[in-house]
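Good morning,

Both structures are done.
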Amino acid sequence: MYYVIFIVAFLACVIGKICGMGGGVIIKPVLDAFGIMSVSSINFLSGCTVIGMSCWSVGKSYVQKDSQIDLKISTPLAIGAAVGGILGKSSFSAVAGMFPNPDKAGGVQAILLLTATFATLIYTIRKNHIRSLHVTNPAACVVIGLFLGMLGSFLGIGGGPFNMAVLYFFFSMTTKVAAQNSLYIILISQVASLLITIFSRKLPEVVWIVLIGMVACGVAGSEAGGRINKKLSERSATVLFEMAMILVMGICCYNIARFF
């Protein structure tokens, strides 16, 4: 079963790199569907994989001096997302505690992920007909990031397509520019979330070979996705993003039926 998990992590991070979703939005529901480990373990493994892929992506773009990350916008967004991530993690723990079987919280995650992904898909399809904004106020960026972090952390996906929709609407970014900024935000917020998990001594049970293998596949997926991305047009990247969201929605429907 390990090789299946590694393939999922690799392919998710290829798509995540191209689309700026980080990969967790695919890894999380797919592993939930397999039912091979607890929801909390999947959340942790997904987050670590996303850290690996986004760290490689952001670091490489800076080394090669082809970064399109707008630090004046994305840094306050990332700070807000980091704080929101802590709140989202606490919210998930509270929801999980409401069920006799904590894994039932995965069903709640699936319902929210389906709803949010559907809304994001509709916006992405219609975004050329919706007037976007040019938010520059740092305080406003922190507040927007706070909500992004709460949602991504609660759902255990890091950031997902919601980052992209926010960067489209509030900051008028194109798909490829938004993808780089999204991965930067995901990196900062996920590292903060991981540190909180470690310092609070609430690490879930994981098989370490799976953790190491998934992170390695995340890095490999980031590298492969980056090379593919250079050959894609803006339109092709957007279409792939929309197809990924449809895939996520289908998996969410299956998970809702499985958990409930």
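Second structure follows.
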Amino acid sequence: MILILGRFQPLHRGHLKAFQKAYDEDKDLVIAIGSSQLSDQEKNPFTAEEREEMINRVLKNKGIKAKIVLVPDIPCDENYVKYVESLVGRKADKVVTENPWTEKLFKEAGYEVKVTPRYFGISATKIRTAMAEGKQWAESVPQEVVDYIKSIRGDERVRQLLKREEEIKSKNT
């Protein structure tokens, strides 16, 4: 089983490429949505359920079958790997991530960890920034995600969150 961990804020074409490569290698795929308790923040605008819906729509269209697990943060690095294992229900054969913290914790726990490259040079941070600034972002995400984000007015939410964060920062300076 291959375990892919990420926040998917939002799911983009780089994430999809990682899903496809993992699925080509092993049809037993688990996707863990990290920081699942966070939403309505500049860095975490989408709820876990919204991120899960984005993933499900894309996987269905691409014919990829995967188990999706929500992984809320815990305040203890030493217990994180066991915590994820308990939520997944078993130990993975391989972990796929781009996050150095995740890589470190799982390698220390004896896992084989594959660090993905930044496919297409895409990052969710850049996508959220483009959304917030009213710039082009849709070409970086699968069409199913574009349609879903627009249906829930997620791009408008990201703009409002950035505006709110800027107001808070200006009040504190």
